[in-house]
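User: Sequence in, structure out. Go.
Assistant: Echoing your sequence, followed by the structure tokens.
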Amino acid sequence: MRIVIPGGRGQVGTVLARHFHAQGHEVIVLSRRRYATPWKAVLWDGETLGPWTRALEGSDVCINLTGRSVDCRYTRRNRRAIRDSRILPTRLLQDAIELLTNPPRVWLNASTATIYRHALDRPMDELTGELGGNEPGAPETWNFSVQVAKAWEAEFFRSPLPATRKVALRSAITFNADPGSVFDVLSRLVRFGLGGAQGSGRQFVSWIHEADFVRAVEWLIAKESFHGVVNLASPNPLRNREFMRALRQAWGVRFGLPAPAWAIGAASLFMRTESELVLKSRRVVPGLLAESGFEFLFSEWPEAARDLVKRSGVLAALREEGPLSSRNAVKGSAV
């Protein structure tokens, strides 16, 4: 297959590109900047039509992951960048695909599990889950994230494409062992003795292991019955205190200093990010994937955490052996 991944330079895009490239598929990443990669990278600006559209002509799959990181302070400037970096490229891809003679048969577009409300009481699946926005007591920044997610999906589904099936990926946090990943950041906290419960510890963490993420994407590509929104998350979200305890155990760390909500708020200011990323309860479950017969390799977080610790150790050892081994690590760690 020819698989085109707009915005494929990030952590999740690299996981997908690495996997499909290792499987022998033709992978083309649309990027705003040139970078060294085993697969093909094509320049685009995410705003205007251009020669990059030739990559989509005759392709099989488009997986749009374009979007500015939300790991920042929600200033007016950053809010506009977060919203525009999602809405405008999605609109542009719609325009481009409409002009193609042989468009991709399926278009998977990133969305987010954050679209659901702060949920402590019950799981949120695609059919019965309640979308968030203006919930009593919720910080205004949480409402902003929900509104962006809603606008993003609305833009994606604005106009049907007769020859292209559309699926929006309401993804939980994808955990992989690469340097700089969320798993890497949390693991450093654990190893420094700071891996205790965050906030009340009662909020739920929705997650998915990288191996299951790529398998779910393959499943959605192959199953033509899928269209609309799909949750990509483990079937077993767990409370933050249990999540962090399992991560400590995976690293063999017995104690983790807890971080109260006020401390997280202060740290967020210092680190120029938002406390929502830690304190909002995301209790998302993959209803449609489960109904279709998809089976997770890692459905429980303790097992997933142990595997990721093992993977991170292998990658670290290979990086220490030199550049050649590092390249082999990228190839060999494909899931």
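User: And one key feature?
Assistant: The mean pLDDT is 91.
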